[in-house]
Amino acid sequence: MLISYNWLRELTGTKLTPLDLRERLTMVGLAIDSVAEGDGDSLLDVEVPSNRPDCLSHVGIAREVAVIEKFNLLNLRSEISDLKSKVAKTAGKASDFAAVEIADAELCPRYAARIVRGVKIGPSPDWLAKRLNEIGQRPINNVADITNYVLHELGQPLHAFDLTKLNGRKIIVRRARAGEKLQTLDGVSRTLDNEMLVIADAERPVALAGIMGGLDSEISTSTVDVLIESAYFDPDSIRRTARKLGMDTEASKRFERGADCENVVNAQSRCVDLICEIAGGIATEDVIDVYPRPLAARSITFRPERVESLTSLRVGVAEMDRILIALGFVIGAATTDKAKTFVVPSWRVDVSIEEDLVEEIARHVGYEYIGSELPPAAMAGEYQPAELKRRRIRRALTSLGFDEAINLSFIDPAHDDVFALATVNEPSEQESFVTLSNPILEDVTRMRPSLLPGLLQSLRHNFNQGTKDVRLFEIGRVFAGSEGDELPHESESLGLIASGGASEQDRAQASRELDFYDVTGALQAAIAALNLPPLAFVEAEVKHLRAGQAANISLADGTVIGSAGALSETISAGYKFRQRVYVAELNLTPVFEIAEHEIKYKPLPRYPSVVRDVTLLVGRNVGFTELVAGIESQEIDDYQGVKLVGTYEGQNIPADKRSVTLRVEYRSDQRTLRDEEVEERHRRLLDSLLKKFSAELH
């Protein structure tokens, strides 16, 4: 918005130069983009924040200048009061010449109309035309120019109607009828709907409320009697109508941010006085002011010590009062030694709480004087629930060569039927996917029910950049719909993805390819870092995993919390992956609820262990987990554990069999075991395995 320096100087008598004002106004939150010189004046291009509609006028900026220069408040008020011109003559009641009806008080809380008869339409005087030209407004005629002048002076949009062109000499503020048409002052015929507010006469719309007047009722050289409109319109209504019709006017800019409802009649009086002075005519003695539900004055309780506690600024109470009073706040009656009550001026629609008053003081004292220090606290900080557990998982996975990924929480609906949602309940009749009503991107309208789509996208990005050996993990929330108006269900998940070679530190080339066991081993390491029982992996059919290379992940009590395996050929082809990809995902919410094992001191063994290797020929459907369970179920004395040495399939082995080599450890805590004792225990163990799994020694 362009502000005339000469105009500001008339209002305030400021001694600051335009460049000084640029610096000072910028420091109080009204950034000056540029200062242009021309024709004996300087124009300040002010970037007014969206929450400060009071500064969309010269008087609004003048209030800020008055505080900056520490003027006495009365000086500024006297300057503004002197803006009123003297009307030579008034006659008649406004209601004798026109009528006003508000049919929708929700969208138009206040509407004022005043009549000026006998005006002479013509060019504006030089001083008025020059002032409008300086701020980028094209002069039209004296009456229209005066309404624009008052708009830029006081911030209140006004409109002048040719009274004789109003059918029935009546103003009705109502919603437009669907399909109703109006040709606005820019010559465009616009089709309206019933959500738009219009100013109508007894028969048709004559203006778009708060945006632009109609061509049929505009002021012309033949106009003699004018009706001056001044009103307050609902900001949301004006904003919606302006956006729908693609209109952006000086009036709509002010109304959609929030005009001053109490300035309606004052601005109108200023406009009528100037019209009578410049264009002649006789104004009515009064104004038709339809204001069915006056807005109540707002007041805020203010404690001076809050300024220092919130900003660290030490400001005297007298200086606080000076700043707030100069900005238009009035000290209320309910004032004590520790707290004051300030009545908020009607033009400050952005002020509603005590912290807003603190902000007003802080910006005029200077944000640059706010110290940098931590606020005092009465208690020590603490970690959020499960934060330490998340940290342990991250450390465990990064130590295994995984990198953490962070992806968006919303995805393409095309992923809806692709992945088995092991981390949240599958959508049912009561539950569904969570759809965004106002997505930031058109093709990502779902809140993610799985971490895998984001991880696969990250993997593809790495492949496209030439990185073929990738190990990623992500910890994040996933979402499922809920019944009725309840909030969506949320749970925390851990996702892993691995592909390419198993690169090692200080090795330029990977020694082997990553496989299923790298992913499951990483999950086991993460669970072990939490001091929890190991996970169980059971072969299963999972929608997004390759048949025969997929497993469900279960807790010790059998609760299924996720899945792991090789990505299916169909999904891999969709992403154009040319190498095997392994993925895993598990629900961390039940994991975090499990109590950790109590860690107890255990001395190192005093006696040596004895190990025995055994190779069994078992069916291909027998897994290592089942063998371990079979061994431990025998509760063999002095048994300490078993490890997998290796497996073999191929030549000299039946197609439905595999050779599995196990290493079993025995040790006593009381003495050294004799060979015959170990042999007896080992033979008993072998007999049970051979019988339980129909196995053969190999």
What is the compact description of this entry?
With 698 residues, this protein is of the alpha+beta class. It contains 19 helices and 31 strands. It has a 7-stranded mixed β-sheet, sandwiched between helices.
Describe the secondary-structure layout.
Layout: E1 2-4, H1 5-12, H2 18-27, E2 31-38, E3 41-47, H3 58-68, H4 73-81, E4 99-102, E5 110-117, H5 126-134, H6 142-154, E6 158-162, E7 170-175, E8 181-183, E9 189-191, E10 197-200, E11 205-208, E12 212-213, E13 226-232, H7 235-245, H8 250-255, H9 264-278, E14 282-283, E15 288-290, E16 298-302, H10 305-311, H11 317-326, E17 330-331, E18 340-344, H12 354-365, H13 387-399, E19 403-404, E20 410-411, E21 446-447, H14 452-464, E22 470-480, E23 489-499, H15 516-529, E24 536-539, E25 545-554, E26 560-567, H16 569-574, E27 581-587, H17 588-593, E28 610-619, H18 624-632, E29 639-648, E30 657-666, H19 675-692, E31 696-697
Parallel strand pairs: 4-7, 19-22
Antiparallel strand pairs: 1-3, 2-3, 5-13, 5-14, 5-15, 6-13, 7-10, 8-9, 10-11, 11-12, 16-18, 17-18, 20-21, 22-23, 23-27, 24-25, 25-26, 26-27, 28-30, 28-31, 29-30
Helix pairs in contact: 1-3, 5-6, 6-9, 10-12, 13-15
